[in-house]
Design brief:
Elements lengths: L1 E6 L4 E8 L4 E8 L9 H23 L8 E7 L3 H18 L3 E5 H13 L5 E5 L4 E7 L2 E7 L5 H11 L7 H8 L12 E2 L2 E2 L2 H12 L4 H27 L3 E5 L6 H14 L2 E3 L3 H4 L3 H13 L27
Parallel strand pairs: 1-4, 4-5, 6-11, 11-12
Antiparallel strand pairs: 1-2, 2-3, 6-7, 7-8, 9-10
Helix pairs in contact: 1-2, 3-10, 4-6, 5-7, 6-7, 7-8
The protein binds adenosine monophosphate (AMP) and magnesium ion (MG).
Magnesium ion binds next to helix 3.
Length: 327
C-alpha cells in the first residue's frame, strides 16, 4: 500500500509518499518565509494553494510514481490555522475523489510522534514536541496519547520568531538565534515559567524585548532565552518521564533541531539512564511523510473516513485521538 500524505497546518506545504513498511519514498517540503514578519494565516493558505500541486508533482517524481500508484490519501486535519488546514483538506478530498481511494485525516502532533517511533526505532517514548505553534510533552498511557505538559500561551518557536522579528531577524528566527547564542555567554535573568507541568513563554518574550531596549546585547539575550526556555522544557519532560516510567525520550518539531536543546535533553536522559532519539531534520519539521505514515497505520488498524468526517479541526487535541493501532 502506498499513501500520499499532505501536511498544511501552518507555514509548510509538505507532500510525502510512504509505503506500508514505513519507507519514505518522497518527502517534498516547501516552507513559506524569508521576510521579516511571521505568518499570516490567509497568506500561508495562499502559499499552500500554489505549492501543494507543485510539491505533489515533485514528490511523485522523487518516488518515481504516478497518481495510479497511490492507494490512500492522508492529510493533516488539525490542529492548525483554519485557512491552511482548509486548503490541505480540500486538496486531499479532491485527490481522494478523483483517484477513488480512501481518505484519512491525521492529528499533526500524533504524526510527529509516529514518524519518530518509526524512523528512530524507539518503542514507547515520551515525546518533547517543540515547534512553531505547538509545545507539548506527550506519552502513551491508557490507550491514548496523553499530554503531560504544554505551553499555556504560545509555542516556543513562535516565541523565538517573535523575538527575532522585533530584533530585525528574518523568519524563521530560531536558527539565527541559535547562531547568535553561541556568541553570547552572560546569563541574564528571565522569568523562568514552569507552572505544574506546563510552561509559558510570553513573559520571557516581553522581558527579553524590554532588556534589549535597555541595551543588553542581542547575543547574550539569545543565549539567555535558550538557556531559560530549554531548561523549562527539559524540566517538564523529565518529570513526565519519571511519572510514566519511560526510558525513551523522542524529539520532534522544528525547534528540536537546536543543538543546545539536544545537548540538554541528552544530558538529562543520560543522568536517568534513558536514551534520546532525534529523527533526521526533514522528518522533525512539519512534513508530509509523517502524515502519510500515520495514515497508513491508522488505515491498517481499521480506521475509515467518509468525506463528511474530513472537516478540519483547528483545536484537534492530541488526547482526542483514539489510538487504535497500539495495544
Ligand atoms: P515547525 O513549526 O515544527 O515546522 O518548526 C518551525 C519552528 O522551528 C520555527 O519557529 C523556527 O524558528 C524553529 N527552528 C528551526 N530551527 C531552529 C533552531 N536551530 N533553533 C531553534 N528553533 C528553530
Ligand atoms: Mg509540527
Amino acid at each position: 500500500m502506498i499513501c500520499l500524505g499532505i501536511e498544511g497546518t501552518a507555514h509548510t506545504a509538505g507532500i510525502g509518499i510512504v509505503d506500508d513498511e514505513g519507507k519514505v519514498l518522497a518527502n517534498a517540503i516547501k516552507m513559506m518565509g524569508g521576510e521579516a514578519g511571521g505568518i499570516h494565516p490567509r497568506e500561508a493558505a495562499n502559499h499552500h494553494v500554489v505549492e501543494i500541486p507543485i510539491q505533489i508533482e515533485k514528490a511523485l517524481e522523487e518516488a518515481k510514481m504516478s497518481y495510479a500508484d497511490i492507494d490512500l490519501i492522508a492529510f493533516s486535519q488539525g490542529p492548525g490555522l483554519g485557512p491552511c488546514l482548509r486548503t490541505a483538506a480540500t486538496a486531499a478530498r479532491s485527490l481522494s475523489l478523483a483517484l477513488n481511494v480512501p481518505i484519512i485525516g491525521v492529528n499533526h502532533c500524533v504524526a510527529h510522534l509516529e514518524i519518530g517511533r518509526k524512523v528512530t526505532g524507539c518503542d514507547d517514548p515520551t515525546l518533547l514536541y517543540a515547534s512553531g505553534g505547538n509545545t507539548q510533552v506527550i506519552a502513551y498511557a491508557g490507550g491514548r496519547y496523553r499530554v503531560f505538559g504544554e505551553t499555556l500561551d504560545i509555542g516556543i518557536g513562535n516565541m523565538l520568531d517573535k523575538f527575532g522579528r522585533e530584533s530585525g531577524l528574518k523568519f524563521p528566527s530560531g536558527p539565527k538565534i541559535e547562531q547568535l547564542a553561541s556568541n553570547g555567554g552572560k546569563l541574564i535573568d528571565l522569568p523562568y515559567s514552569v507552572k505544574g507541568m506546563d510552561v509559558a513563554f510570553s513573559g520571557i518574550l516581553t522581558a527579553a524585548l524590554q532588556l534589549r531596549k535597555k541595551g543588553e546585547s542581542l547575543e547574550d539575550l539569545c543565549f539567555s532565552i535558550q538557556e531559560t526556555c530549554f531548561s523549562m522544557l527539559v524540566e517538564v519532560t523529565e518529570r513526565a518521564m519519571a511519572h510514566v516510567e519511560k526510558e525513551e525520550v523522542l524529539l520532534g518539531g522544528g525547534v528540536v533541531q537546536n543543538k543546545r536543546l539536544q545537548e540538554m535533553v541528552r544530558i538529562m536522559a543520560q543522568e536517568r539512564g534513558a536514551n534520546m532519539y532525534v529523527p533526521p531534520g526533514k522528518l522533525c519539521i512539519d512534513n508530509g511523510a509523517m502524515i502519510a505514515w500515520t495514515g497508513i497505520i491508522m488505515y491498517r488498524s481499521g480506521v475509515t473516513m467518509n468525506i463528511d468526517d474530513t472537516s478540519i479541526r483547528q483545536r484537534f487535541r492530541t488526547d482526542d485521538v483514539d489510538v487504535t493501532w497500539r495495544e
